[in-house]
């Protein structure tokens, strides 16, 4: 059996993307070259590494084994790069970070900018996923660090508190009076499902999370328009064509310049503790350990 690092990295990209085409793009290879490499790996091993279907690909049992060891190989290489970078006089390496929508949009940008300004040799590869997928990815070694809502299963992971995140509904003052009623200080998410919503693009972690919450009530979220940022959600809400669900930090920022108000959601899931999670802190490359220390501070 003989695999090179390009083969192993390609396999990881394909498995994480769920398709050979997307994996080839991530690996900066043509589809033909990626397919040829995969066939060569499978011929060399004598076993299929991927289960192919019209929906994409997933790893076979043998593929899962190779993926597991490939991740260990690249983790060790990252540690080697980081430690050699220390000898050269500065941190070096790439930190792989998975996080949910709220963390990526509201809580991380300033902290990451400060960290990267101090450590010019460190790159950060960030991917947005639902909290459940973040925990799964960290557990499987697909990322160094995850940021999740602590409502998901975090067994087998080391966790550290990061920040509190509250989801609120944003609406025009007229809509707010209609939705909240006289004397009410909060509104239930189920009571908002009869009106049109402005949401994030369907591939966002928050969109999937809200759709799951609606489904648990036996309802479907009526999304009239989808945009790419919380600021855009609030701008659309201000026109009166629908309401939105955004982090409280985004709502407060937008309320300074837009005619919208924030409604507190009474649902327990709307108030979330965001946590940092890792497989094992002591096994992380030094750049990842230093980033966690900065985020915790």
Overall average pLDDT: 91
Globally, the shape reads globular
Termini separation (Å)? Answer: 46 Å
Number of domains: 3
Sequence-ordered SSE layout with sheet pairings:
Layout: H1 5-17, H2 20-26, H3 31-45, E1 50-53, E2 56-59, H4 61-87, E3 93-99, H5 101-107, H6 109-118, E4 122-128, H7 131-139, E5 145-149, E6 158-171, H8 173-180, E7 197-200, H9 205-216, E8 223-227, H10 230-238, E9 244-247, H11 248-255, E10 261-264, E11 271-278, H12 286-296
Parallel strand pairs: 3-4, 3-5, 7-8
Antiparallel strand pairs: 1-2, 5-11, 6-9, 6-10, 6-11
Structure, briefly:
The protein has 297 residues and is α/β, with parallel strands linked by helices.
What does this protein look like?
This protein is an alpha/beta fold. It has 3 domains: 1-89, Arc Repressor Mutant, subunit A (Orthogonal Bundle), CATH 1.10.10; 90-163 and 273-296, D-Maltodextrin-Binding Protein, domain 2 (3-Layer(aba) Sandwich); 165-270, D-Maltodextrin-Binding Protein, domain 2, CATH 3.40.190. It contains 12 helices and 11 strands. It has helices at 5-17, 20-26, 31-45, 61-87, 101-107, 109-118, 131-139, 173-180, 205-216, 230-238, 248-255, 286-296; strands at 50-53, 56-59, 93-99, 122-128, 145-149, 158-171, 197-200, 223-227, 244-247, 261-264, 271-278. The strands form 3 sheets. Strands 3, 4, 5, 6, 9, 10 and 11 form a 7-stranded mixed β-sheet that branches. A hairpin with a 2-residue loop joins strand 1 and strand 2 (56-59). Helix 1 packs across helix 2 and helix 2 packs across helix 3 (31-45). The protein is globular.
């Amino acid at each position: 059996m003989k695999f090179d690092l390009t083969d192993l990295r390609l396999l990881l990209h394909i498995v994480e993307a769920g398709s050979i085409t997307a994996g080839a793009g991530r690996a900066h290879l043509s589809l033909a070259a990626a397919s040829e490499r995969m066939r060569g790996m499978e011929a060399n091993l004598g076993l299929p590494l991927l289960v192919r279907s019209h929906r994409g690909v997933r790893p076979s049992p043998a593929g899962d084994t190779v993926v597991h060891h490939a991740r260990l190989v690249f983790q060790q290489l990252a540690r080697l790069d980081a430690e050699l970078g220390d000898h050269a006089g500065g941190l070096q390496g790439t930190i792989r970070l998975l996080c949910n929508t709220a963390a990526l949009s509201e809580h991380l940008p300033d902290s990451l900018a400060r960290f990267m300004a101090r450590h010019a040799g460190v790159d950060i590869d960030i991917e947005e996923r639902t909290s459940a997928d973040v925990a799964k990815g960290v557990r499987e070694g697909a990322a160094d660090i995850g940021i999740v809502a602590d409502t998901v299963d975090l067994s087998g992971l080391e966790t550290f508190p990061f920040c509190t995140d509250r989801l609120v509904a944003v609406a025009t003052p007229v809509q707010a009076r209609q939705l909240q009623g006289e004397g009410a200080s909060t509104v239930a998410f189920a009571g908002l499902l009869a009106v049109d919503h402005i949401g994030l693009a369907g591939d966002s972690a928050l969109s999937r999370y809200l759709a799951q919450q609606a489904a648990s009530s036996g309802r479907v979220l009526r999304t009239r328009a989808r945009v790419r940022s919380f600021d855009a959600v609030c701008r659309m809400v201000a026109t009166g064509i629908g309401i939105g669900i955004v982090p409280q930090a985004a709502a407060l920022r937008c309320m300074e310049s837009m005619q919208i108000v924030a409604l507190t959601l009474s649902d327990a899931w709307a108030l979330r503790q965001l946590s940092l999670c890792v497989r094992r802190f002591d096994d992380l490359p030094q750049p990842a350990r230093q980033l966690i220390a900065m985020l915790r501070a």
